[in-house]
Amino acid sequence: MQGKTTKDFSGGWRMRVSLARALFIQPTLLLLDEPTNHLDMEAVIWLEDYLSKWDKILFLISHSQDFLNNVCTHTVHFTSRRKLQTYDGNYDQFIKTKSEKEENQAKQYKWEQEQMKSMKEYVAKFGHGTSKNAKQAQSKEKVLEKMVRAGLTAKPEDEKPMNFNFPDPGHLPPPVLAFMDVSFGYPNCEPLYSNVNFGVDLDSRVALVGPNGAGKTTLVKLMSGELQP
Which end of the chain offers a freer environment for a tag, N or C, measured as fewer CB atoms within 10 Å? Predict the structure, then answer.
């Protein structure tokens, strides 16, 4: 294995090499973008444990909630308004605090809007003349100006959902994809597969698991036609 170039390794082993290089030099600031990509479960568990004990600055991006919960002590949220907001705690604590913050923001926004509407209506109705009501209208107008100067609560903004529509392919007779006595191996290497037989139907939900370098990606490439047996 040590005699191979990095480009000849599987995606999982290339990720292991990149992580090993980054961790070996012990940087003061470690930046990781999706570090669990391509790693098998054993490697993910090891990396999670190692980073949870990291004694320097760690800044990472990940879509694995379990990984974030077990590694991170703070969370930075990049909002839909393109602002960064910092929260204490791991991912679960971030979700809880963010929900409470948005609920309080919605209540404050609603209260401010109701107060402003009421005062504006009063000013429009009694804002002229010298009567007692007119003086109260002027007072409310000053309160309005003070609220605006102090800064109003922004309207809560929901995250925009993404919707996908896929055309119905109709019924396809099984098997949709079939392997019959399929064998494959890379040049100058031991065969990865010999006489493989299996089929995939429309109702199949298959998880392909195994250690890094076992040949999972190769099998998918064979299934998609990117590689030929």
Answer: N
Task: Give the CA diameter of the chain.
Answer: 99
47, part of any domain: yes
Q: Is residue 187 predicted with pLDDT exceeding 70?
A: yes
In a domain, 159, yes or no: no
In the chain the first and final C-alpha atoms are separated, in Å, by: 24
> Residue 6 has what DSSP assignment?
G
CA distance 201 to 219: 17
HSE-up (13 A, CA, CB side) for residue 224: 7
CB 76 within 8 A of CB 48: no
Give tens-digit pLDDT for 2-21.
667 777 778 888 889 999 99
Question: Residues 60, 111: one domain?
Answer: no
> Which amino acid belongs to residue 183?
S
Residues β-bridged to residue 177: 200
Contact in structure between 190 and 213 (CB atoms under 8 Å): no
- The reply to whether 138 falls in a domain is yes
Q: Give the model confidence (pLDDT) of 68-122 as tens digits.
A: 999 999 999 998 778 899 999 999 999 999 999 999 999 999 999 999 999 888 8
Structural domain tally of the chain? 3
Q: Which domain does 216 fall in, by range?
A: 177-224
25 within domain boundaries:
yes
